[in-house]
C-alpha cells in the first residue's frame, strides 16, 4: 500500500522557519522524482522544488529561502523553509512521480504576525 504523508506544518511569524518532512512507503522511492508543491484556496497548485536524486531545483518564489533534500534510505524528503513570508501561507504537498504519481494529503503552513 502506497503512503505519502507530510509532517511539520504549523504557524510561524514572518521571518521564521519550518521544516517539512514527507515520509513514504509502498513504492521504489529511489526511482521516483520527488517534489514539493503548495496551494492557496482559489489558486492553482504551485511547484516549489524538485529532486530526482541529485541537486534540487527551485521555483523563483522560494529560491534562496527553501531547501529540499532527500534521504533514500529513510524514504523521506524534507523542505527546510527559512525567512518565511506571509505569502508563503498555503497547504504544502509532497509528490512522487515516475511510473505513477502519488500525492500526500498536505500540511498547512500559516505565516502571520
Could you walk me through the main structural features you see in this protein, from its secondary elements to its overall organization?
- The chain has 113 residues and is mainly beta.
- Helices cover 0% and strands 53% of the residues.
- It is built from no helices and eleven strands.
- The chain has strands at residues 3-7, 10-12, 18-25, 33-39, 46-51, 56-58, 66-71, 76-81, 90-97, 101-103, 107-111.
- The strands form two sheets. Strands 2, 4, 5, 6, 9, 10 and 11 form a seven-stranded mixed sheet that branches.
- Strand 4 and strand 5 form a beta hairpin.
Structure described in brief:
By secondary structure, this protein is an all-beta fold.
Amino acid at each position: 500500500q502506497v503512503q505519502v504523508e507530510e509532517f511539520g506544518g504549523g504557524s510561524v511569524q514572518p521571518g521564521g522557519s519550518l521544516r517539512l518532512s514527507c515520509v513514504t512507503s509502498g513504492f521504489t522511492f529511489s526511482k521516483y522524482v520527488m517534489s514539493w508543491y503548495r496551494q492557496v484556496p482559489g489558486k492553482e497548485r504551485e511547484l516549489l522544488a524538485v529532486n530526482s536524486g541529485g541537486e534540487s531545483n527551485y521555483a523563483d518564489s522560494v529560491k534562496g529561502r527553501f531547501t529540499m533534500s532527500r534521504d533514500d534510505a529513510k524514504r523521506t524528503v524534507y523542505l527546510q523553509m527559512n525567512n518565511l513570508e506571509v505569502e508563503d501561507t498555503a497547504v504544502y504537498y509532497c509528490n512522487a512521480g515516475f511510473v505513477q504519481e502519488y500525492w500526500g494529503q498536505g500540511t498547512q503552513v500559516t505565516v502571520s504576525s
